[in-house]
Amino acid sequence: MTKEAKDHIEYLEKKANQYQLENDKQFKIDKQNINFQLRGNNKYYYARQCRLFAEYIIKNGYQNKDIKEVSFNNYSINNGYNQYCEDIKRFNSKDELLGFVIGFNEAVNNY
To answer: Which residues contact 69 (CB under 8 A, 6 or more apart)?
Structure first.
């Protein structure tokens, strides 16, 4: 392998590490109000979707309710910081919750 090729590979590895660090930093910000574990390659996407949902309903309300803070729990989205606060919506599973959030965001963005 030539020196030029090695330098190029090293550059790409540095950039990949830099992007991963940036993604991890954004993920920590996005998941601040998520009270369950996100795993796998989609965790960044799910955390971002939850953050977009929370920002939208804090700004616009939800079903005529004034929303001040949003938390995401295994079976509910709550108006407050934990699962014991008033329910905004309840679900049968975490996957159902995430599907609702993604669908809501798609509907809002495409309307």
So the answer is: 33, 58, 79, 80, 81
